[in-house]
Amino acid sequence: MSMVSASQDDEVMAEINITPFTDVLLVLLIIFMILAALSAPPGFEKQLPDKNDNTPQQQQKKTDDIEVLVNETGVIYIDGKRTDVQHIYADMSDVQHRKGNKHVSLTADVKAPYGTIIRILDAAKIAGLEDVGFVTS
């Protein structure tokens, strides 16, 4: 038989049990992770400016910029010369050799295909033109 004194039974346990607190924090973490995944839009969700918007602001264009235009059907113009997706890489390289490493101004219609815009960005990068900007109206 073991003898336990009365003073040992009356001691208050001074340790804090953090298991329920940890459980609550883990449940909250899981809830926030699920909500963050549901609220963030996946992929390339860039809203391009409306080219047909008639605002009074007219920005002065630089004459040495390389101007790339894309309309709503996906037709591409590089410095006024019409091209298509198959020839965009060669045309972008030709413009780079002719004008040098200049700023590329990309103006696209709101309904322009995103694949075409991505190919233009890729062609500019391959041609060595890394200073590309989207023109807004």
Automatic annotation (TrEMBL):
<dbReference type="GO" id="GO:0022857">
    <property type="term" value="F:transmembrane transporter activity"/>
</dbReference>
<dbReference type="GO" id="GO:0005886">
    <property type="term" value="C:plasma membrane"/>
</dbReference>
<keyword id="KW-0813">Transport</keyword>
<keyword id="KW-0812">Transmembrane</keyword>
<keyword id="KW-1133">Transmembrane helix</keyword>
<keyword id="KW-1003">Cell membrane</keyword>
<dbReference type="InterPro" id="IPR003400">
    <property type="entry name" value="ExbD"/>
</dbReference>
<keyword id="KW-0472">Membrane</keyword>
<protein>
    <submittedName>
        <fullName>Biopolymer transporter ExbD</fullName>
    </submittedName>
</protein>
<dbReference type="Pfam" id="PF02472">
    <property type="entry name" value="ExbD"/>
</dbReference>
<keyword id="KW-0653">Protein transport</keyword>
<feature type="transmembrane region" description="Helical">
    <location>
        <begin position="20"/>
        <end position="38"/>
    </location>
</feature>
<comment type="similarity">
    <text>Belongs to the ExbD/TolR family.</text>
</comment>
<dbReference type="GO" id="GO:0015031">
    <property type="term" value="P:protein transport"/>
</dbReference>
